[in-house]
Every structure is written in C-alpha cells, then in structure tokens.
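Per reviewer request, we include the raw input and output of the structure prediction for the construct analysed in the revised manuscript.
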Amino acid sequence: MTVNQISVFLENKAGCLAAFTKVLQENGIDMRALSIAETPDFGILRIIVNDTYRAACVLKEAEYIFSITPVLAVEIADETGSLYEIVRLLGDNGINLEYMYAFLTRKKGRAYMIFRVEDNDKASDVLERAGMHIVSQEELEEL
C-alpha cells in the first residue's frame, strides 16, 4: 500500500517556492507533507497533497516539471525509539532506505513518516507483520 508523492523541480532562486505555493493555494490544494533537497541550481520539492490528480493537472497547466512516485506513509507512536524500530526492521530485512521525512497531523500522540525504499511491497509486508500501520492514500487525504 503506497501513497503518491509529487517531486517538483524548482529553480534555486528567491521567490520560486512562493510562486509554487501560490499556485497550490489558488487551486485549493493542501500540502500534507513536504521536503526540499537542493543543489546550487535547482531544488527538488517532494510533497504529499490532499488530491494528487488535481495537483498534477494544475502543475502541468502551470508548466512545472514534476514526477509522481509511490512511497510508504507509516503511522508510528510519537515516542522515543519508534523511528529506530522501523529503520532497524528495514535494515534487518535488507531493505534500502533511499530517503525519508516526517509530516504533521492533528492526531495527538502519533507521528507520520514518509519512506522511499527500494521495494515498497517488501517493506510494507515487513512493517505490517511487525504491527506497524501503513497509511493508505484515502486515509492520508482525510488527515
């Protein structure tokens, strides 16, 4: 079970992120999570939104360069050691973690992490067997 992440290429210059978020705001698209990685010339903005299809249509119309990638969203207890348990399970099962980032919700006592791994199916199976809750696209859109 995966959720859709949109990766957008933005120029690394003042005002580009503001212009991008304005496009989302004007079209009623809500970002649930985001991560920015940068190079000297451009940045990669990774976002999870409430409506991937609508966001893709809006971004295409606005001529942004983007891709959609399936990633895992995992709900964990918001307490010391919870992240360790997940990354230990992935490592112990030979699953390479390419990157990860957190996202916030209003659900008290819970934390949510986005994981990009080599094998989503294997990672999902390992984590579910260990009692972890993998968040679906539908659940994420309601958070």
